Recover the amino acids of this structure.
């Protein structure tokens, strides 16, 4: 009779082929595969310079965040859309939750090939979009464009000068300016993630942090309306009337004034104090923290629980083993005033239950982290 | 809470249910266990394919996120090791949902709630093994006052909104399977809400049981 030999694998191969067993073995001796403590978060570095915004005319807010080798680069560009004039007059209070808007993120996780966005990228973008909307961070009023200027051709200097109703009231009165449409900015956030090491929920934390950080540094430009894009204006006979009009008067162009001296910061909700320095720009928006729960059977240690099993709360999931073996997950956004902005809890593993006690414990950690951030 | 439900209304699938809660109406089909495509094949358990289609327009990232939430819930509740190397397809088609018009913002909580509750009936109709019953509830909180199955108007005025799903064992809510909360939430408020939701979900489950009993009575071929 042939003897069946026991097969053994080196740790790194076991982690690949049986991530759940590998994770169990690590946890039963009190270690995580990434060598962090159970409720220890991976440190995050936020770049203090504003290079991306300064060097690119179309980037108005940006942030670069690193956590371990995972790098998140976030740039915010702007779009301008026309708003329906009927909804314009209502104030933020009257509109309730509809008085707030959000960003439109596109998240890209670099993995060495291009193609259609993966499910993970779509889910991350949509979660970020909905979270920022429901956390009531960006009032619609902050993005609406008031006092847009007009570009006027100066024949003597042979160039265009831009006049704004609030900055140049005298000159502006002289311009025959009848443009009654109202416009608002939309925030387009492009997030690139390099060297993905963390789990999806941990990536969300980074994306949320980087978007809030970029928003807190966002500078909105002035907008002006020019009649034609080219410098020449041709007088032609209009078909509908006999008066001579200028070509392109009806299809006026909306332009962004790249004069950085006229930029003004985006006003976020309840952020009067937070805008002052960089130490506290996350006041109202909160800090996102993620957790996982896994049950470990202690083989050698007895008497921890009735059956020698205990549920362990792990913070900031990272790596293949934790990502694939932990299905009970928890994501919490808490802010400095101890208000919870978002909870997303899923008990995906029948054996590892997130009980109310564990939820409480996670909430405490999330609050503490928001205070210290 | 009241809901209207009909089952077995689609002919060419293994199980289906149509459910209406508040302003949301949804139809769900379950096909399976069937043979999966090679890339969906899991050696030791059933794979799930979940497709959500909105009431208007084409599916977008909004539905992708709903699919993800529904999948993570259902993969723990369906006894997947019973169907190794097989596939269970679930298609959720919204028929009517609260659509945000000009000046209102979009909420997906009512849709998630309806989809979860409808999946319960469709899975039972298809005879897919479930490890426990489950019932979900959509809640909005305004100054600590809870509204169950809020309308879009309620949601728009609310401080926070929640979807909570309990797993139900022997008629009692056992543990939280899913909790999606957004808005401004105080911790105390949250735990009061959860404890109130327990009894509310048990009431939903009694209605579920009553419906399923009637269904089984009607479906049973060998009547005496």
């Amino acid at each position: 009779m042939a003897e069946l030999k026991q097969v053994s694998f080196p740790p790194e191969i076991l982690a690949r082929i049986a991530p759940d067993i590998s994770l169990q073995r690590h946890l039963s001796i009190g270690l995580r595969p990434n060598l962090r403590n159970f409720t220890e978060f991976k440190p995050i570095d936020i770049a203090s310079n504003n290079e991306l915004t300064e060097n690119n005319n179309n980037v108005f807010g940006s942030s670069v965040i690193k956590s371990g080798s995972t790098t998140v680069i976030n740039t915010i560009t702007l779009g301008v859309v026309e708003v329906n004039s009927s909804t314009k007059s209502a104030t933020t209070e009257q509109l309730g939750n509809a008085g707030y808007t959000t960003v439109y993120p596109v998240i890209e996780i670099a993995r060495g090939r291009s193609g259609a966005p993966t499910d993970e990228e779509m889910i991350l973008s949509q979660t970020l979009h909905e979270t920022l909307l429901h956390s009531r961070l960006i009032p619609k009023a902050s993005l609406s464009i008031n006092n847009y200027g007009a570009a006027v051709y100066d024949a003597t200097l042979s160039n265009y000068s831009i006049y704004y109703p609030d900055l140049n009231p005298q000159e502006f009165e002289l311009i025959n300016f009848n443009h009654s449409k109202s416009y608002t900015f939309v925030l387009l956030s492009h997030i690139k993630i390099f060297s993905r090491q963390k789990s999806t929920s941990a990536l969300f934390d980074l994306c949320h942090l980087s978007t809030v950080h970029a928003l807190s540094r966002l500078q909105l430009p002035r907008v002006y309306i020019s009649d034609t894009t080219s410098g020449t204006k041709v007088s032609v006979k209009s078909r509908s009337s006999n008066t001579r009009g200028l070509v392109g008067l009806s299809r006026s162009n909306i332009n962004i004034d790249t004069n950085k001296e006229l930029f003004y910061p985006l006003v976020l909700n309840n952020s009067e104090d937070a805008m002052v320095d960089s130490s506290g720009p996350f006041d109202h928006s909160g800090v996102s923290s993620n957790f996982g729960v896994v049950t470990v059977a202690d083989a050698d240690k007895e008497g921890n629980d009735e059956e020698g099993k205990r549920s362990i709360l792990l913070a900031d999931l990272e790596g293949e083993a934790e990502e694939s073996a932990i299905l009970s997950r928890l994501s919490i956004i808490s802010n400095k005033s101890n208000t919870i902005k978002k909870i997303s809890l899923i008990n995906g593993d029948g054996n590892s239950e997130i009980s109310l006690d564990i939820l409480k414990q996670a909430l405490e950690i999330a609050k503490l982290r928001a205070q210290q951030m | 809470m009241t809901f209207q439900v009909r089952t077995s209304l689609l002919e060419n699938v293994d199980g289906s249910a149509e459910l209406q809660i508040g302003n949301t109406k949804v139809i769900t089909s379950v096909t399976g266990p069937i043979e999966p495509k090679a890339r969906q094949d899991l050696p030791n358990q059933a794979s799930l394919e979940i497709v959500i289609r909105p009431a208007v327009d084409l599916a977008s990232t909004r539905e992708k996120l709903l699919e993800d939430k529904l999948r993570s819930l259902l993969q723990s509740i369906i006894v997947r090791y019973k169907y190794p190397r097989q596939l269970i397809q679930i298609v959720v088609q919204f028929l009517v949902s609260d659509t945000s018009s000009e000046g209102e913002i979009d909420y997906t909580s009512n849709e998630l709630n309806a989809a979860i509750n409808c999946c319960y009936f469709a899975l039972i109709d298809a005879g897919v093994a479930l490890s426990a019953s489950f019932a979900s509830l959509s809640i909005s909180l305004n100054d600590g006052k809870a509204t169950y199955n809020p309308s879009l108007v309620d949601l728009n005025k609310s401080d926070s909104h929640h979807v909570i799903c309990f797993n139900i064992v022997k008629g009692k809510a056992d543990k939280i399977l899913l909790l999606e909360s957004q808005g401004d939430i105080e911790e105390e408020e949250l735990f009061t809400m959860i404890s109130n939701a327990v009894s509310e979900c048990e009431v939903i489950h009694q209605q579920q049981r009553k419906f399923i009993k009637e269904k089984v009575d009607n479906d049973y071929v060998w009547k005496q």
